[in-house]
């Protein structure tokens, strides 16, 4: 009895930990601003909102209802490519932008992390100009089409939302072959193998790269396994020490084990 209750508690805590490992929910953040309703809808429909939630550090260049018009008429997969190039994999708020030393800075976007980008389509050029901060595709010759309108939301140093004046469309982004099938998306794949001990070395090899250039697959994938691995042992050991005979203990262990498995499954599916 007690054992089951404590197992359930333990699972509840685990679930809580794994769900709070999401740094932010862009859908909820944007829901506070009616002018970004269409932009927010597109992020949800295209699945980008979900992809963003597995990131720890992003800057979203948001388009309000009046400037997103052209994008919402496009096929969803193309709108997704274009919008994913509005998600910078680094933190830039207005303060940081105003302190940029160089006249222009190249930043990496979520489109680059998708692996579908060609040339410099997955990068943006942020430039200081006489008219203020401007954004454009980093592809050679692409214009700085969008101006910074205003900062919308900031949660340093995990997420910043900046409103920009126009969609930024990398030349040729709409002509590309369809993005690779879902199997090529690396983020969620490691979850089912969480219990395999061979996962351990993975996170360490990401350290030396610079934060801007490396898509953060490594650390992201590591979240699940780290949380999951220790579950079995503490559960099995802790509550059994003094109270019962061997048979009772083993049957409780079975019940407890089943509860753990069901709980973890539920947890993963909800996740
Ligand atoms: C915020 O980002 C940092 C890395 O930039 C990360 O270590 C931290 O866990 C993130 N915070 C949350 C709540 O995820
Ligand atoms: C973010 O919040 C929305 C609405 O509040 C919810 O439907 C969605 O599942 C949440 N996404 C994540 C990844 O938690
Ligand atoms: C933006 O458009 C959506 C639907 O297209 C609408 O519900 C919302 O009220 C609009 N917001 C503003 C500020 O115009
Ligand atoms: C960014 O764009 C501006 C204007 O097109 C260009 O002059 C500058 O060289 C670009 N910066 C980089 C690093 O490519």
UniProtKB/TrEMBL annotation:
GO CC entries: plasma membrane; side of membrane
Species for this entry: Populus trichocarpa (Western balsam poplar)
Top-rank lineage group of the source organism: Eukaryota
Classification of source organism: Eukaryota, Viridiplantae, Streptophyta, Embryophyta, Tracheophyta
Composition bias type Low complexity, residue spans: 185-217
Location of the region described as Disordered in the Swiss-Prot/TrEMBL record: 172-253
Record key words, sorted: Cell membrane, Glycoprotein, GPI-anchor, Lipoprotein, Membrane, Proteoglycan, Signal
Compartments reported by the entry: Cell membrane
Signal peptide: 1-23
Identification of the protein by name: FAS1 domain-containing protein
Family from the record: Belongs to the fasciclin-like AGP family.
Cell inner membrane is among the record's keywords: no
Listed InterPro entries: FAS1_dom_sf, FAS1_domain, Plant_FLA
Topology of the protein relative to the lipid bilayer: Lipid-anchor; GPI-anchor
Residues of the FAS1 domain: 23-153
Role played: May be a cell surface adhesion protein.
């Amino acid at each position: 009895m007690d054992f089951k209750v404590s197992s359930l508690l333990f699972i509840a805590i685990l679930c809580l930990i794994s769900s709070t490992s999401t740094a932010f929910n862009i859908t909820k953040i944007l829901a506070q601003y009616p002018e970004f309703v269409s932009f927010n809808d597109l992020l949800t429909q295209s699945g980008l909102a979900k992809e963003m939630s597995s990131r720890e550090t992003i800057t979203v260049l948001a388009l309000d209802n009046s400037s997103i018009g052209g994008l919402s008429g496009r096929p969803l997969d193309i709108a997704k490519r274009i919008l994913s190039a509005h998600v910078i994999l680094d933190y830039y708020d207005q303060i940081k932008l105003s302190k940029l030393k160089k006249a222009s800075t190249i930043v990496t976007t979520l489109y680059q992390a998708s692996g579908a980008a060609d040339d410099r389509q997955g990068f943006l050029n942020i430039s200081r100009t006489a008219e203020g901060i401007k954004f454009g595709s980093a592809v050679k010759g692409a214009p700085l089409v969008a101006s910074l309108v205003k900062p919308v939301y900031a949660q340093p140093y995990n997420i910043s939302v900046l409103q920009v004046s126009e969609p930024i469309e990398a030349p040729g982004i709409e002509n590309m072959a369809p993005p690779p099938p879902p199997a090529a998306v690396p983020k969620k794949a490691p979850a089912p193998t969480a219990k395999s001990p061979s996962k351990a070395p993975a996170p360490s090899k990401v350290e030396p790269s610079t934060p801007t250039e490396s898509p953060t697959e490594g650390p992201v994938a590591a979240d699940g396994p780290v949380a999951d691995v220790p579950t079995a042992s503490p559960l099995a050991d802790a509550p059994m020490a003094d109270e019962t005979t061997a048979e009772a203990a083993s049957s409780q262990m079975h019940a407890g084990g089943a509860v753990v498995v069901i709980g973890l499954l539920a947890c993963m599916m909800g996740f």
